[in-house]
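Ticket reopened. Same input as before:
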Amino acid sequence: MNKIFLGLLASLFASSLFAATGDPAARFEEANRLYAEKDYAEARNSYEQLALDGATNPAVFLNLGHAEYRLGRPALAAINYRRALALDPADTAARSSLEHVQRELGQPAPGMGFAEVVGKYISYDLLALIGSLLFWAGSLLVVFAVFSARKQTGLLALGVFVALVGATAVAVSWAGDSRIALEHISVVVEETEARSAPADNGQKLSDLKKGAPVRVIAARDDWSLVRLPIGVDGWIKSAALQPVLPADLPPSP
Amino acid sequence: MDMRFLRFAAALFLLSMAARADVVTQISRPVAQVGQPVALVYRFINTPEPENMPEPSIFVPGDGLAINFQGANRQSNFSFGFSGGRIQNNSESVIEFNYSVTPLRPGKFTIPGFEVRAGGQQIRTKPAVLEVVAPAGYVPPATVPPPGAARQPMQALPVPPQPQRGGADGEAFFGELVMGAKTAYVGEVVPVELRFYFRGDLPLSNLQPPTFGGDGFTAVPLGEPEQTEQMVSNTPYRVFTFRSAITAVKTGEITIPQIKMPGTVISAGAPPGIDAFFDQFFRNMPIPGMGRQEQIEVTTREKVLQVVPLPKDGRPANFSGAIGQFTLEATATPRKASVGEPVTLQLSVSGRGNFDAMASPVLTADEGWRTYAPKEDFTKTDAIGFGGSKKFDFNLVARSNRTATPGAEFSYFDPSKKGYVTLTSAPIPIDAAGRETAGSDQDTLPPVSAAPAGPQAAPAAPSADDVASPAASMGKASAFGFVPQLRSPWFLRINLALLASFALALPILLWLRRRAFKKVQTADLEKTLRQARATLQQTSDRSEFYTAAANFLQAQLEMSHSQSGSVPDTVAELQRRISNPIERRDLESILARRDELKYGGGAGGGLDPEERRSVAALLDKFAAHHE
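Engineering reply: fixed in the latest deploy. New output:
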């Protein structure tokens, strides 16, 4: 009897251990527990590990941003809020948190433009899918009308219209999807100077504060050529930059 | 002679007495504002002198009017005339009793009739009706006076039956400051009126508005004055009343300084620049707008306001400076909200008091809600903004599923009760969906309403206090992650595959189209052949017969090309394709016969059966050879 009971306990423990290490939801709850206990460093590591393991839930990046913020790294927090918004443009918690952190950093907060408003009501992925389907359906109608033995003017017009609507939807999706816009955007995570050449003795162009987003144009050795907020291009140390949407999420400095 | 005259006069008097005795009640206007005196006259016509007229006042139930006796006038008029050879007398004896009626509060009042004795008989006066309306900025008196209070806070402006100075000796002009209280709390709004009296016969010109202000208090800027007429000690005056309100900013004794209203009076006489010789001329023949100009300055007397601090005892934690008498109402829209959709909780504070210094109510039981700084909107109900309604629109976003909005509390100091009052608003049932959240106290946004919010608070601005709450559950994963669908490999592959399919299908489509086209053309030609054959068999008209035969020939030649219209020159085609000269000649003769019948006007008429047979045989043979 005792052996059976012990065996049951052991299996329960094993299953709970598996749940804690394997199930993303359980790991997320564990990270939340650490956060609630104010163990922000461990909570941050847990959230980050979830992200590195491929979690694409906006909540993971929202909480990761919160953990970075509590650890006194608002620039990294802003990056993660941007990531959460890239995954869900309608995430009001991420947007308000980003606005708060940007204010704290003395940086302008990203506004609610047309793209953000559209993104609140329809996923850009869905819009691209619908647009693509419409485009090909319209194209098919056009082909059918053109290659028909008899004249099909109405069908031709309908096909052209549907194809144009589809192409417009795809174009809007392309222009509005922040993930595309953020592909080459990095955020300055430590204050640095932009120079005219990729060298320490290059002419100083401007100072860049934490949290400033810049567009990376090229990279050479340890330097990145970026489009500065003042409108000119300058070189800054790559170590001072953190891409908003990297291939994977590197550990923070 | 004298005795006869006296008898005649006595007879006339008795006649007049008996003729028409009456008592008339007259009120100078049926509608008046609070504080605006009106004249009440009891006119006894052809009656003996009343013996017990009420002096000095008339009692009116309800205590809303102050009626004061102003004096009596006696007149006797005699006139004689002859009409129809008889003497007509028009004598009249009039005794007037004048009263001034000062309304103390709005309402409709009836001054009752009363009985008086006159010459041994009872005469009853008629009642008079006066409707009293509230002027702009009017503050009704407190209904419950505080026990032992030196004054009634928030009371109506004291409306003196007569001005406190001037007028008694027919003074040309004077001013007075009427204040709603002699004692006030710091921050309390005290309504005031600046009244400037000008005797009715004074030719006024170029009156300048007064400047109102002083140390230790702030004042509502003066607006346009109200202009009325008022009898002061039987002298008519034009009264300019400016309404304002003062708010004491420090404790102690505050002096409201003299307020000056400059102006010009034009009196009869020679205008400036004209020789004094003409002075008498202009005095005797005054020209409107011309005369001696005299600068005047009407001033009020200084007044003192005792300012006391607000009591510390019983002060609620969320008291933020509102002083007055208010009510609180709450509404919420929409009643059903989806995730992320804001709910607007509108809290409306109405009443009288210092709306300028009023902060927003404080939200209670707001767990599970994200709150934003409220948008404020004030609507005043009087000219000075003492009464009104201030609306606070809170935008709320549910963090987790909620079934009710937060409640609200609003604390203010009520000077009439000399104490603090806290109004509460219960949560309003709604259905709001929200994201599940972790309930960490640290990350819960503090209620924004607890902080003083200026009148220009940004609407729906996120709180500057902290970041949002962390998410408690992972929620739904993004289907495509950080790679947009437009960039996803499968999306690109499918679209490329579709494009390639179209490119590859193009030759096939072209072939299919051509085939379908040929099919259609062939069907058309076959139809033409069928129709021509039917005509050849049925018609008896030669012209029709040869036309059908030519059509048959044409269609048969085009069938080899599977396209109608592909043989523009039938004769040339026959020469190219028919090698037998006899057959070719016969076929060409069909065409020639058709043209001859069609264009040449040759003989039509009936068709010979032999001719029909031979042509049909020729065409059958041709068709058999070229199918």
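Residues 117-180 of chain A form one domain. Chain A has three domains: 2-107, 117-180, 183-243. Please confirm and we'll close it.
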